[in-house]
Amino acid sequence: MNRYNAVLLDFDGTVMDTNRMIMNSWQYTYKQVTGRPGDEAFIYSTYGEILYDSMKKAFPNEDTDQCVAYYRGYQRDHFLEEIRLFPGMKEAIAGIKARGRKTALVTSRMRKTTMQGVEAFGLDGLLDTVVAVEDTEEHKPEPAPIIKALERLEVQPEESLMVGDSQYDLLCAERAGVDYAMVSWTAAGDALRRLGKTPDYTVQEAADLLKII
Asked: Per residue in 62-84, pLDDT tens?
C-alpha cells in the first residue's frame, strides 16, 4: 500500500534554486527605493510569502506597486540565467511519477515565471498540475493553494505529502491536513525555528523523497 498517492512541491527554494535570483531582485529594489542594500536576514524571512505583502512590510511609506515593479523587472531580465534545479530534484520527481504517484507544483509565484522555469528545465512532462498565485484568492500560509491542488489531482489530504522550504509551506500543509516534508537546503531556517513547529519529515537530499512515499 502506498504511503502517499500525491506529492505536492513548492517551487522557489524547494525544486528550483532561486535564492540568488530572489536576493538579487530584492537588493535591486532596495537600491532603487532607498539607495542602500537591504538586510539579508529580513529578506530571507520573506521567502515563500506573497511578494506584495513583503513589499508593504519592507517599504511601508513607498508605492508598493512601484516596488513590486522594480522587483519583477529585475526578474524579467535575469530569471533564467540566475536559477537552477536543486541537485537530484528532476530525477526525484521522475521517480515519483514512475511509481504511479500524482505530482503538483504549489507556489506563491506568478504562473508566467513559474512555467518559464518548468519548461526551461524539462519539468513540464513530470507534473500533473501547477497551482500558481493567480489560481486562488487566498495564499500560503492559508490552505487554499493545497486544497486547489488536491481538487485537481482528485486525491484526499491524508494521502498527500507537501514538500517545501518555508514556514508558509509548513502552515499551509498543516491547515490543509496534509503531511509536510521540509528540505534541508532551506534558506528560511531561522524563520522556521522561530515558528517552533516540527515537520513530519526532513529531506536531506532529493532522492529521500522516494524513501518517504
From this structure: 999 999 999 999 999 999 999 99
Provide the 3-class DSSP secondary structure of residue 167: helix
Q: Check if the beta carbon of residue 148 is closer than 8 Å to that of residue 129.
A: no
3-state SS assignment for residue 106: strand
Q: What is the pTM for the complete model shown?
A: 0.91
Peptide bond into 145 cis (omega under 30): no
Mean pLDDT of the chain: 95
- In degrees, to the nearest 5, what angle opens at C-alpha 89 toward C-alphas 175 and 130? 50
Segment 87-127, tens digit of pLDDT = 999 999 999 999 999 999 999 999 999 999 999 999 999 99
What positions carry a catalytic annotation?
10
The Cα 149–Cα 19 span in angstroms is 25
| Dist CA 43 CA 30 (whole Å) | 11
Give the whole-angstrom CA distance, residue 124 versus residue 136: 21
Q: What is the DSSP string of 3-14?
A: S-SEEEE-TBTT
